[in-house]
Amino acid sequence: MKTVSTVPDLRSAVASYREKGQRVAFVPTMGALHAGHLALVEQARRAAGKVVVSIFVNPKQFGPGEDFERYPRDLAADAEKLREAGADLLFAPAVDVMYPPGFSTTVHVAGVSEGMEGARRPGHFDGVATVVARLLGLVLPDVAVFGQKDAQQCAVVMRLVADLGLPVEVLVAPTVRESDGLAMSSRNAYLSPEERKAAPALFRALLATQLVHELGERKAEKLLAAFRLAIGTELRLELDSADLVDAATMRPVEKVDRPVLLAAAVRAGRTRLIDNVVFGG
Ligand code: AMP
Predict the structure, then answer these.
(1) Are residue 165 and residue 270 in the same domain, yes or no?
(2) Distance of CA 240 from the midpoint of ligand 1 (Å)
(3) pLDDT for res 188
(4) Is residue 58 within 6 Å of ligand 1 at its C-beta?
(5) Which band of pLDDT confidence, cut at 50, 70 and 90, is reported for residue 281?
(6) Ligand 1 centre from 30 Cα, in Å?
(7) Structural domain containing residue 267
C-alpha cells in the first residue's frame, strides 16, 4: 500500500490505476480506524479493483467546543491496518492541502441535512458535504462507501451526488458492532470502563423499540416514548436526542407506514454516542 499526502501524488497514483483499466473505490475516514472502517474497505474491495482510503480529521465538520483537538490520531497504526485490509492507496493530506489558501466554497445540502444531527450540530453537514465533494473531485472514484452508522450523513452524500450529477455510485455498509452490540466508533476510545459498560444500552433500547413496532405499534409518539423509557433504565447514559424519520428524506413521521430510521444520541460522561436502526415499510 502506498501513502500520499499531496494532490499531484494522489492524482498520479489514481491515473496509473485508470491506465491499467482498474475501477476505483473510495472510503473517506477520519482515522482512528476500527473494524467498522475495515468493513467499508472490504466492501470497497468487492466493488472495484483498486481501493483508495483517505484519513483526514476535517476541521470544518467540528463545531466550537467539540472534540476536534482531542480526536484520536494515529496515522502509523491506521496505515498498518489498511495495508492488512488490502487497501491500495492511503491519502492523508494536511489541512492546507484540503483547504489551500483562498479556499472559499461551502457545499450546503438543504432538506436532509437540516433535522436531527444537522439541527443539533450547526454547520456539521456543511463541513461534511464540503469535504466529501472535494475528496470526490480529487479522487474521482467509481464507487464511494459510507457507513450506515452515520445514516443522515449517507442521506446528505446521496443527495449531494445526485444533485451535482457526480459520476460515482454511493454504497452504504451496515453498522459493525462490538459483541455486546455497541456500534464501533473512534469516539468509544474516550469512554471510561464504567461508561463503556453502560454504552450498549443505546443499541438495546433501539432494538427494544423495534420490537414494540414488530408487536404492532405504529405511532411515532408511542415508539419514541418506548425508546425513552428503555434508555431511561440506564442511569449512566443521558439521552441527547431521539428521532423517528422517513429513512429516505430524514423528515419526521407521525406513523410508521414506510421504512423509517430511529436515530438516537446519548451522552456517556463527556462522550456523545450515536446509533440507529431502520424498520417498517
Ligand atoms: P469516521 O472516520 O468516523 O468519520 O467514519 C468514516 C466512515 O466509516 C463513515 O462512512 C462512517 O459511517 C463509517 N463508520 C464508522 N463507524 C462505523 C461502524 N461501526 N460500522 C460501519 N461503518 C462505520
Answers:
(1) no
(2) 20
(3) 97
(4) no
(5) confident
(6) 9
(7) 186-279
36 and 144 housed in the same domain = yes
| Strand locations in 86-208 (E) | 89-91, 143-147, 169-173
77-129, pLDDT tens digit by residue? 999 999 999 999 999 999 999 999 999 999 999 999 999 999 999 999 999 99
Which residue, of 142, 173, 204, is where some domain finishes? 173
User: Is 190 domain-assigned?
Assistant: yes
* Distance between Cα 99 and ligand 1 center (Å): 23
Q: Which of 200, 203, 204 is nearest to 276 (CA)?
A: 203
Which residue out of 37, 108, 124, 213 is catalytically annotated? 37
147 Cβ closer than 6 Å to some ligand 1 atom: yes
Q: What is the CATH number of the domain that holds 116?
A: 3.40.50.620
Alpha carbon dihedral 49, 45, 248, 277, in 10-degree steps, equals 180
Q: Is 37 in the active site?
A: yes
Q: Please calculate the CA angle 30-264-194 and round it to the nearest 5 degrees.
A: 75
Cell, residue 130: 464540503
The pLDDT score that the predictor gives to residue 243 is 98
